[in-house]
Design goal:
The protein is of the alpha/beta class and 407 residues long. Helices cover 25% and strands 23% of the residues. It folds into three domains: 8-176 and 231-302, Aldolase class I (TIM Barrel), CATH 3.20.20; 180-218, no CATH class; 325-405, Translation factors (Elongation Factor Tu (Ef-tu), domain 3, Beta Barrel), CATH 2.40.30. α1 (16-24) runs parallel beside α10 and α4 (81-90) crosses α5 (101-110).
Length: 407
Amino acid sequence: MTDYNNLEVLAPAGDFERFTAAMDYGADAVYLGAKKFGMRASPDNFDFDELKKAVCTAHAMGKKVYLTCNTLPRNNEISGFREFIESASDCNVDAVIVADIGVLSLVKKYAPDMEIHMSTQTGIVNYVTANELYNMGAKRVVLARELSIDEIAEIRSRCPKDMEIEVFVHGAMCVSFSGRCLLSSYLVNRDANRGECAQPCRWGYHLMEEKRDGEFYPVFEDERGTYILNAKDLCMIDHIEKLAQAGVTSLKIEGRAKSAYYVSVVTNAYRMAVDWLGNNPGKPLPQWIHDEVFKVSHRKYCTGFFFGHPKDCQYYETGGYIRNYDVVAVIEGCAGGVAYATQRNRFFSGDTVEILSPGREPVRMELNELFNENGDKIETVNHAMMKFHFPCNMDFPCNSIIRKELD
């Protein structure tokens, strides 16, 4: 029988708000970046005071924090790494994620008790590499996204049992091998391997004939359009059982640059899916769990390389996202049959909304009576971050999300 008890749900955190969302909505662990050496430069990330606070918070909840050190540092950055990794060690992070062999050696030298996870950017596609990295001190390998489930299962069978295997299961995919890309550096001088990718693979491209300056012609990969490099998003919510059977230890959700709402919903979906499968072996997921991942901003979904060569993983129509829901408010607490909340987007009395709480099926209700902070009845909640309340015969925990389907 497949064991789901030790299957980790690993969520991203680009700042403390998103860290809190991951904690609240069921992550077993989070991965996050400090101000240096991490592969996402655009989020706020964490200074060491914030990192220490995050680690203390996670540990008090029985959860873990992994710190990304997965850039490919240049010569002039090496001298600053000792202070960085010693500060990270002082914050008691549970592991560091590295992609560079030199960085691995420096972690072992300056933080010898630190657990090491090898990043997907290392390009691990076979058991020989996984075993060598284990022998060099890696506790976990984050496998390349180009692998199938069968290849993952073989790696698992040919490596030590205490070597952990992590795979990406949800989120944006890069068209380059294991995330190592030069396109952004060439076009706009922003190095993807140093956390600064401009995502030119999401752009639409045209041809221009040299003697017809300013006249653009579409580039057709086929009849569907011109976004020739644009990958769909990965989604394995319906295939967790196969991943568990292959010996995967950790289910990794992409998205350190995504919103707190995204982190909440997707983490919650995978948490509920893992728990459902553990309690209902062999049974399919309830439709409402499957549907949750479609209620965040996303590109069309696919299953990547998990089932062999991807047959339909390019998205030719547009470089943008599908978005069907807006967060309109966040609940701060319930008492005496009243829910108290703070606005995020405008909505109206009489609107039908869904309220999402950790580990629960979303509750659909019509908000027919709304009151402002002074107790006056109002017809619309239209001021940013305004406090309001409404009658409610259910209790919802703090940070429950009120969302509305877009027309």
